[in-house]
Amino acid sequence: MDLLAEYRRANLFFEAGDPTGAARLLEPIVEAEPGNAAVRQLLARAYFQSAQLGRAEEQLRELVDRDPSDHYAHHVLGRTLERLNRPADALRHLRIAAAMHSGNDDYRTALRRVETRVAGGR
Fold this sequence. Notes:
Elements: H1 3-15, H2 19-32, H3 37-49, H4 53-66, H5 71-83, H6 87-100, H7 105-120
Helix pairs in contact: 1-2, 2-3, 3-4, 4-5, 5-6, 6-7
């Protein structure tokens, strides 16, 4: 299997709005190259976009474990946990992402939304 060609094909599926098709193509690539962060990140995004949130969480936790300075993985993990109705768990990762990349409006917006939700639940 030409992994690079399959990755490019999966990216086309993802960009065309077919995250499930992208995930199907990416899963064997991650299995063959478990240390490839770019492939794992796209797989996590495909799972997130197709509401396979448990699978997205698994991939994102692996990314964060391997590289704790990956602000984007922290952000998407936080968003995934938010969608899983676990705002207190999400808050930690959203705070990390926002602290590492403070100029990102999406990061700040997600953080404020979850902070408000957590504070309202007390």
